[in-house]
Every structure is written in C-alpha cells, then in structure tokens.
Amino acid sequence: MINRKSFLKIGGLGISGLFVNKAIGASCAKNMETNIIDKNRGVKFGVISDLHYDLMHDSDRRAQLFIDAMIKEDPDFIIQLGDFCVPKPKNKPLLDIWRKFEGEKHYVLGNHDTDGGFSKEQALAFWGAEDPYYSFDKNGLHFVILDGNEKSETKKIEGYPRAINKNQLNWLKKDLQNTSLRTIIFCHQGLENTLGGLENGMEVRYLFEQINQEAGFNKVILILTGHHHMNYHNEINGIHYVQINSSSYYWAGEEFNSTAFSDEFYKKHGILRYTLVYEDPIWAVVNIDHKKNIHIQGTKTKMAGVPLADAEIDVYKDVYPITSEIDSRKLKY
User: Per residue of the chain (333 residues), what is the pLDDT tens digit?
Assistant: First the structure.
C-alpha cells in the first residue's frame, strides 16, 4: 500500500539556553532607533512553495508561470520554501526557467529535496545555493532561512527528520541577537503545526518570543512556511505565522481515488490518483514596509477536473480546510 512518504520518494539547546542577554537586547533596540532606512520603500519578494517538480505532470508550466509573474512584479528577491526538486540532471529545465528571473534568488531545503539518496549539499549545489541556513539584510529588514530537516536529538521521529538542533539553534540565537532589524523567518516545516510540523517548533517559537521581549519591541515579526500544503495564518504572542500553500497539489491519501483526469493520464501518472491537483500554480507576493504593515498578495485557482465540493473528501481532515488558494492578508506588526 502506498503512503505519502513512498509517494513522494518516487519522483541539547535547553530552555535556559534560549534566554537572551538583556544588555544585548537593549543595544539592539538603540541601534534600531538610529538605523536610517527608506520608510517609503520596504521590501517586496515573491514566494512559492512545494512545487514538487519531480512529481507533477506539468511542473515546467507551473514554474514558468511563476517566473513570468515575478519578472513583471520585479520584487527585491524570490524564494522557494522547499520541496522544489531533487538534484538530478533531468531537472535542469527547472533551473533554466528559474534563472530567467535575473534578480536575487533564495532557497529553503524541503524534506523531499534529498529524496533518492541525495544529500543536502548536493541539492544546494544543484540550485546554486551555499548553506542550508543563513541570513541576509535587505533595505532595513533582516531575513533568516532555516533548515528544519535535522534529526531530533531527543526523540525518535517516524518518517523524515523535522527538527532544528542545538548547533543551528545556537547560530539562530546569536544571529537574532546581533541584528537590530525587524526579522522575517523562512522554514519549510510549520513551527506551530503539530501534524508533521517542526518537532521542536515550540522551542524555536519561545526563542523568538524571548528575543522580542528582551529587545523591547517585536524584532521577529513574520514566519513563512510551506510543507503542509495548506493555507492559514496564526498570530502567537505578537508574531505572525503564515502557511504558504503548495503551488501544485494537496495529498489526499492512499484511500483516495481521484477521477480528475482520464484513465490514459493515470496510466502515465498513476501516483496522482492520490492527490487533488491544483489546476494552475499559486504563489504569493509579500510587501513589508517600515510602518508596521505586512501585505501578502495571494493567488487562487480551482481543483483540476473535479470541483472540491464533488471530490468526496473531508475538507477538514487536516484541521485547516483544504483549498487551492493562498489568501491575501493585511497584517500589522
């Protein structure tokens, strides 16, 4: 019987260590006040998640539509939130499309980007990235990319690794202490989703809250994640956690039998019987200014072949409703 994992394979920082030195927090707050930034401009970026190039029948089309839109939008950078593609020569056409956007590009590692025995280093090298986690500044804002694909140091977890371990947490703590800028975090796995999300997500969230408390202002303002192929927003202790839906599909489960496509289609792409495929790709454009505004411009489509209402599936099976949308949101920090 096929499950989600086999489907996709086809194609000790303690709590005490998370507390922040108050002197460092106060220094960062002071630097924030004196930092000169363009308050009228902010940062604009395009984000897409869970393309699953190795699995989708029309991945080139999906990637091309996103890149065409980004060329028109002209954001400061684009970023993919993981489950992009495995690093094999067959997938070079995706990179050819991706690189048509001549601006800055960033990459988050997903759990399926190393399927087939590939390493993180191979995936990053294939994309032209260097590190699994790092940070950068852009027009008075600080951005952090995390690697949520580490093995737990405290628990045995079924399936793929989904933790952020001591070394990365120590790096993250120092990185956040050393910036005075409002910060946006990217991670593949949800930090507040208990259904397959980051195993130590609560620990990481608490670090963010301590950073904010000791800084005296909301330094960490927004966390963007993929992985769950859902569409939702949570605000926890003043921090926004936004899930960016997959650009391609929702995994419906091994008991599901899609009739969205023809029998001939499923002879070639039989694995897609277990999914709800989105007719067109979806993504978001995010604008963040220095007047405490976060504007997420989402996109939406419909399910391919069969309307969701006729798909004979419990739309709340993963708590948040199944949808082929990324909501537009206006948030404040």
Answer: 455 555 454 443 333 344 444 444 443 443 333 345 566 689 999 999 999 999 999 999 999 999 999 999 999 999 999 999 999 999 999 999 999 999 999 999 999 999 999 999 999 999 999 999 999 999 999 999 999 999 999 888 889 999 999 999 999 999 999 999 999 999 999 999 999 999 999 999 999 999 999 999 999 999 999 999 999 999 999 999 999 999 999 999 999 999 999 999 999 999 999 999 999 999 999 999 999 999 999 999 999 999 999 999 999 999 999 999 999 999 999
The count of C-alpha atoms lying within 13 angstroms of the C-alpha of 155, restricted to the half-sphere facing its C-beta, is: 11
Query: Measured between alpha carbons, how far is 97 from 101 in angstroms, rounded to an integer?
Result: 8
3-state secondary structure of 120: helix
pTM of the model: 0.89
Please give the structure tokens belonging to residue 70.
Answer: 């980004």
Where do the structural domains in the chain lie, given as residue ranges? 4-332
Q: Does domain 4-332 have CATH number 3.60.21.10?
A: yes
